[in-house]
Structures are given as C-alpha cells and as structure tokens.
Amino acid sequence: MENIKPYTKYKSSGISWLGDVPEHWSIKRIKYVFKEQDKRSEIGLEDLLSVSHYTGVTRKSDKVMNGDFMTNAKTLVGYKIVEKGDLVINIMLAWNGSLGISKFDGITSPAYCVYKSLIGGEKYFGYLFRTKNAQQEFKKQSTGIIDSRLRLYTDKFFNIKTVIPSLEEQTAIAKFLDYKTAKIDRFIRKKKQLIKLLNEQKAGIINHAVTKGLDPIATMKDSSIEWLGNIPEHWGVKPLRNLVSLNDETLSEKTSPDYEIRYIDIGNVNSDGVVAEIVNYKFKDAPSRAKRIVKNGDVIISTVRTYLKAITQIKNDTDNLIVSTGFAVLRPRKLIISDFLNFAVRSNYFIETICSNSYGVSYPAINASQIMHFKIALPTENEQTEIVAYIEKETSQLNQLIQTIEKEIALTQEYRTALIAEAVTGKIDVRAFVIPTVSQQEELYEEIEEELDMVAEDTESYENE
C-alpha cells in the first residue's frame, strides 16, 4: 500500500485470524498481555464512559450534547473505574468491535470488562482488536446461541492467541495509523459536510416550492400561520385531517405466527427519507411494534425520537409491508396527491412544527392525532403535479452527486479498514514511515475546502431567493 513494502521474512502464526506474520514477532495468549481490572467507584461522580463499535471509548457527556441521554441508572456507585490507556470491552458486543483503548479517566458499566496492558503498546492492541478478523475470533470464542446473546467472558478472551511485535514496532505502527486514520477521517468528515450542504440545498428547493409555488410573480397573501408566512393568493391552507386518513390498517393479534412480513423500523429510515433496510420476519419472531400495514403511496412520519426526522413515502406494492407503531401512517384521501404530501411533510417548516410540539427531552415524541391538526399550504392538484415534477428535476442532479460522494466515502472506509489490518498484522512494514509536516498535510485539504465553499455559496443563494 502506497509503496510501503512488506517485511523481508515471514512465518506462519499458526492462528487462523492472523495468518503469516513477520518472522521476529512473537505469539502469546492474551492473558500474558493484559490483566483484568475490577476497581469500583465509591462516589459515582467520575466521568461516565460508553463503548461503541463506531467510536470506541467516549465520554457519555459528549453524546448527551448531541441528543443522547446520560443513563437510566439511579446511581453510578459501583461502576467500574477506567484509567487512561485501559482496554474497555462491551462483552455483549465484542464480536462487532464494541471495544477500545480509553483516552480518558472515568467509570463504565459494571457489565463491561476493563483490562490493563502488562507490556505497554495499548494503542497497537486497540487497533488490532478492532479488525474484522479479530472480531470474528471474538465471536467464535463468545458464549451464546444468537448474536444478541453472545458474551465474551474474560477466560475465553485471555485464552485467545495474539501476535506481539516489539514495543518499538507497536509504537511505530500506532503512530502510522494515528496519522493515516486522522487524515482519512478528516477527508470523510469533509465529504459528509459536503453531503449535508447538498441536502440543505435540496431542502431549500423543496421548502420554496411547497410554500411559494413556481410562479415568481404570483400575488401572495398572508397564510395566517406564523411559520408558513405568505403563500400564493389562490392557495388554501388545510389541516392534515381534511386531506389524509391516519393509521388505517393494523395487523391483527390473530395473524398466523408463520405469516411472513417485511418490516421497516424507525432506525431504518434516515433524515433524507431513504429506507436503508427492510427486514424479513415471521410474525411470531417480529418485534411487538411491527403492526402498521402500509400501502403504495402512504407517507410515514416518526412520532418517537422526532429529532431523527424519519419521514418517507412508501413506494412498494407488496401486501406484507409493515412499519413500526412508532410511525404515523398518512394515506391521501382527496385534494392532495401522495408525492406532494411527501414533500410537504418533509419540508423544514413542517418538521420544525413536529419537533417543537414534541414532549420529552431524551426521547421526544408526539401523538399521531396531534399531527393531523397541523396545517399545510395546498395548491390545486394540477399545481401539485407541476411542483413535484419541478422538485424531482431540480434535485435529481444533487441526488446523483450525493450518491457519488457516498460511494467515495464507502471506498475510503474500506481502504481505512484494510490499511489498519495490513499494518497491525505485519503485512506492511511501516517502521521507516516519516509523518509529513503540518504544512504538507494542509495542502492536501485545499481542494476539499474549495469544493465545500462552492456548495455553501449555492445553498445560500437558494435560501435567499
């Protein structure tokens, strides 16, 4: 990779998840590399730490600032003490990489395991244990029948064999990966920022079209709704209850246990209205909330965790498509077409209305019946069709660009995963790698910054129209 050469001599590690390793590296069981820590908090006031396969070990307070909640525990007394450099593993999710080396002092769940290195090189092992091959080995050594019940207990973890480079090499590999992953992560963050700007540009197009129409010289009138503002004079303003029905169909409790359903949960719909996954279940195995029957043309709105903005239009003709009871299912009846309804309820003004009327801090929710009282601007059906065609045309190029960037991100993430695996298992020799100076690094980001600036200017122009 990047002209970095392999080591000159290799040997078989005798370990399936490691393969061949540099000849001078040693192999030992993890019990000779880490020892378990079980110190407990006596006051429960230390920083609470969480563990994720996305971010490793992080402060829970940082997640609270981003909309999460701290904990449901009445007290944190008795939580396990974590010191900077400790390895923390969520033993229930070790198989998917929910572990990491802590950068912080703090406390964590008593259900997690905390380990301290006996030989140093914590960062190196943090990278090694989060590789796909390590995760597969953790899964193999875990106890349990199904994924959600697997547990990687300490005796099983300690019995796993691992590779051990010299401390000098561990340090060199960790520094190499710190530099490379920071560079890759910054690139990905910038690309995600670009996607965010493009989505804001899309939102600007949608918001203007569904509230102001397509005629720039149309006579306007006051809608009498503060957050809606002026609308074309010939448009109406209607509450949703006059335009759609709510939650028309529900699966009966008498449904055959073997009836096969295709299920959409709230977490499967993103804020752009994309359904990331539809899960197949037999009725007897499905979540209890898998009850709402949806049809082609229905529009679904999340009534829980409303800040996620999980709203989408159903474009599926199958009879067995089911969504969570956490969705309000809107079915157009008269005066409004499905495509226009979809854009109207996904507009900023409507989403902000839902969020501002939600109750609860950590888990905001709203009653589906309350949504039916919210009003939207209503053009004639002919205008609705024209507006939908306009939005689809104006946003199609943006959608294609977003898809291209998402592919770039996916490929970059694959490269990141492969690079880490190559380095920690000795497939490449990074000992002589020289980390560039700060000025050389900054030059690499100029093109991305210019790209972001251009899109930001375009977005601003839509908002000012």
From TrEMBL:
Matching Pfam families: Methylase_S
Coiled-coil annotated residue ranges, if any: 438-465
Boundaries of every Type I restriction modification DNA specificity domain copy: 70-196, 232-409
GO molecular-function terms, A-Z: DNA binding; endonuclease activity
Keyword Lipid metabolism appears in the UniProt entry: no
The UniProt record lists the keyword Coiled coil: yes
GO biological process terms on file: DNA restriction-modification system
Keywords: Coiled coil, DNA-binding, Endonuclease, Hydrolase, Nuclease, Restriction system
Family: Belongs to the type-I restriction system S methylase family.
Protein name: Restriction endonuclease subunit S
Organism lineage: Bacteria, Pseudomonadati, Bacteroidota, Flavobacteriia, Flavobacteriales
